């Protein structure tokens, strides 16, 4: 790999780090926003879900852009859009304006993410792909985890607007570095944008997310919510059908002919669902149940975040040396142990117990996420890597958004129907953790039985 490509990757990873950092930076502020705007958890979750949904929608569109335009102007455009959304967030006069700022930020991040992966997987030699993806994991896996910790420290001294103010210098630096150092790596080909596919999958994901995020209100609006979910599923089926029949698909369905890619993607979806669900559950537990400050809430995540940062490059090297099945199995067992610690936590327990459970979970996650991502992309031929990157990252963001929505709904429903019997406001959060545990156990069964093909 040439020095020019290494420098380009460094700049792009730097920018993507802050884009993904913002995906969870507002999580610790959710209880604060609920009080400021007098809204409930169903409404406030859109601060997070809107970001992840737009991220998911932009990624398949980016697959077209990557094939059609050079890397440099694409990344410059993405970094500038992200900067614009961040500045708007500083001056947002209302909750609606805050959501708009988050959406614009997500547009930029959704464009940056695939560019990093495609450049790395295209130019890295096969024997170093795991190591390189481990370094990229600092942006993709470490930044969302460190987000709540940083926001907790910021909110302890400043208002929530500083969650945007303090990002601006880094967003500006990303634009400047991109303009100065990114080479014009030509990546042009005669491709056509499949507008039908883009519109279909966009509305499908929007309807599914809206439907799942309102499950707690199903008794009041059963037909509306069920109709949204069913229509979302129908549009998703229509998207797959049209992409297999057209000569110019938005995403090539040929990537699903590779069993290793399918299994790695499925595992990633389930694991990411639990990871992002956890970033919602912990602030609610520590701030609303244990009545601790946002700073304490953020600091509880710090040891696990640091562990992720240190071990991400090592995890990539482990992929180059050991079997995929062994790494993921060990990681899942560790993750399950940490989740059990969280699920059966007592409201009178110490914050240190919560911190311990989260740190154990992060150790398991960091052993799994980089190898899973590397395995998925390494299974594809070079010409299908852009489609694989777009699909893998889209499903990652969809899992994050839908997982957050479903777990939030489970917490709300459990509180509504079980608190009267238990007398504990903790019950809903415990059920949320138990749902995460069930999903991890399903992953463990899939890995051990090899339902979708061997991982080695």
Automatic annotation (TrEMBL):
SUPFAM superfamilies: MFS general substrate transporter. It is found in: Cell membrane. GO terms for molecular function: transmembrane transporter activity. Gene3D superfamilies: MFS general substrate transporter like domains (1.20.1250.20), Multidrug resistance protein D (1.20.1720.10). This is Multidrug efflux MFS transporter. CDD domains: MFS_LmrB_MDR_like. One of its GO terms (cellular component) is plasma membrane. The chain crosses the membrane at residues 7-26, 46-66, 73-93, 99-120, 132-154, 160-181, 193-212, 224-240, 261-286, 298-315, 327-345, 425-447. Residues 8-451 form the Major facilitator superfamily (MFS) profile domain. Its main location: membrane. Keywords: Cell membrane, Membrane, Transmembrane, Transmembrane helix, Transport. It comes from Candidatus Levilactobacillus faecigallinarum. It holds the Pfam family MFS_1. InterPro entries: EmrB-like, MFS, MFS_dom, MFS_trans_sf. It is a multi-pass membrane protein.
């Amino acid at each position: 790999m040439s020095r020019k490509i290494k420098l380009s990757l460094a700049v792009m990873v730097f920018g993507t780090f802050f884009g993904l950092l913002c995906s969870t930076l507002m999580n610790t502020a959710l209880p604060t926003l609920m009080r400021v705007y007098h809204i409930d958890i169903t409404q406030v979750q859109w601060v997070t879900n809107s970001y992840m949904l737009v991220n998911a929608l932009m990624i398949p569109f980016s697959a077209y852009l990557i094939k059609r335009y050079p890397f440099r102007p694409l990344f410059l455009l993405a970094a500038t859009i992200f900067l614009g959304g961040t500045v708007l967030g500083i001056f947002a006069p209302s909750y609606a304006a805050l959501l708009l700022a988050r959406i614009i930020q997500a547009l930029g991040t959704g464009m940056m993410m695939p560019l990093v992966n495609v450049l790395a997987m295209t130019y890295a030699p096969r024997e170093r792909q795991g190591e390189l993806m481990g370094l990229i994991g600092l942006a993709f896996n470490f930044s969302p985890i460190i987000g709540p910790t940083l926001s907790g420290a910021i909110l302890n001294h400043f208002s929530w607007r500083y969650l945007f103010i303090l990002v601006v210098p880094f967003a500006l630096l990303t634009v400047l570095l991109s303009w100065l150092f990114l080479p014009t790596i030509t990546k042009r080909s005669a491709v056509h944008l499949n507008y039908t596919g883009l519109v279909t999958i966009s509305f499908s994901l929007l309807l599914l997310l809206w439907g799942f995020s309102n499950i707690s209100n199903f008794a009041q609006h059963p037909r509306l919510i069920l109709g949204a979910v069913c229509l979302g599923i129908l549009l998703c089926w229509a998207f797959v059908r049209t992409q297999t029949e057209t000569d110019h698909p938005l995403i090539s369905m040929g990537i699903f002919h590779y069993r290793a890619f399918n299994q790695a993607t499925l595992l990633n979806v389930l694991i990411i669902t639990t990871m992002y669900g956890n970033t919602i559950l912990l602030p609610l537990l520590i701030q609303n149940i244990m009545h601790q400050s946002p700073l304490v809430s953020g600091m509880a995540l710090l040891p696990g975040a640091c562990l992720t940062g240190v071990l991400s490059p090592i995890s990539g090297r482990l992929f180059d040396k050991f079997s995929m099945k062994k790494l993921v199995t060990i990681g899942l067992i560790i993750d399950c142990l940490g989740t059990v610690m969280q699920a059966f936590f007592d409201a009178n327990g110490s914050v240190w117990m919560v911190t311990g459970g989260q740190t154990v979970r992060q150790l398991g996650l960091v052993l799994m996420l980089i190898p899973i991502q590397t395995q998925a992309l390494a299974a594809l031929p070079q010409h299908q890597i852009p489609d694989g990157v777009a699909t893998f990252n889209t499903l990652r963001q969809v899992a994050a958004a839908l997982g957050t929505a479903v777990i939030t709904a489970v917490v709300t429903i459990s509180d509504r129907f079980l608190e009267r019997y238990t007398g504990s406001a903790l019950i809903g959060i415990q059920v949320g953790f138990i749902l995460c545990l069930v999903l991890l156990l399903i992953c463990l069964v899939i890995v051990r039985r090899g339902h979708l093909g061997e991982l080695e």
